[in-house]
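Hi R.,

Here's the chain you asked about this morning:
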Amino acid sequence: MARTLLPLPGLLGLVTLLMPLAGAQTAQPPISRATVLSIGDGDTIRVKQAGRVITVRLACIDAPEMDQSPYGPQARRYLQMRLPIGTPVALAVKATDRYGRTVAEVIGAINLGLALVEDGQAFAYRKYLGQCDTKEYLDAEYRASRHRHGVWQVPGGITRPWVFRRKGSF
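And here is the predicted structure, written out as tokens:
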């Protein structure tokens, strides 16, 4: 019985092609299920997951602070409308932040962080975009700015939340 062997360069090429696929599979964020308990602000929620209550910071976005009126309270109301109490969600966990919050993309019927950006209720948080689909978030922000939705009603957009916090404006 004759066996066909790949020539060494072909074998190395095959291994080289498959290596990124193996890495991509292991790089997928863990997905977990949870139920919405409350909305803190435009980018923070509390959920019940496996019998535990956890605070989740929406990944890759930054919503206006509550003191950035009317935009902070507006972002919170938007999230309350899109994620009523008791809504089941999937969490694509990215990290734990310095406050002990789980940082995750929150997916209900849609990706909530992406929807917030698309509708001008939050900014793509460039400092942390490497955890998500950067192009998708930047494209959503561009569309929101172009259509002057939410935070983009002000030419150039309102003061970015990360700048607002740094200035201690609240």
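One quick note: The first strand starts at residue 31 and ends at 41.

Cheers,
M.
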